[in-house]
């Protein structure tokens, strides 16, 4: 029952425009920074490299939590492609370290 209540709360929150706007603006300041590597592709890659050097294996995910229309979906898709390209370039040593 608690799981169902939690699910409903998060589902409501995910569909509420005001809460979505607040999450985009303040999410990292209120705890998301513990699981978010960075606000840009470059900062995420730097953080993952730091964690890799400490022996940790990481993934980069752009989940698209705030996608609600076709245009935003296309933007999220392009961002994922850019992320994959940046990781590839970094692994090949083509980006500044």
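-> sequence recovered:
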């Amino acid at each position: 029952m608690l799981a169902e209540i939690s699910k409903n709360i998060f589902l409501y929150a995910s569909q509420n425009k005001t809460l979505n706007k607040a999450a985009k603006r303040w999410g990292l300041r209120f705890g998301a920074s513990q699981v978010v590597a960075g606000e840009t592709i470059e900062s995420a890659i730097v953080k993952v490299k730091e964690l890799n050097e400490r022996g940790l294996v990481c993934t980069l995910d752009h989940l698209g939590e705030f996608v609600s229309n076709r245009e935003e979906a296309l933007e999220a898709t392009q961002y994922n492609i850019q992320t994959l390209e940046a990781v590839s370039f970094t692994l090949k040593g083509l980006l500044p370290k």
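The chain is about 60% helix and 0% strand.
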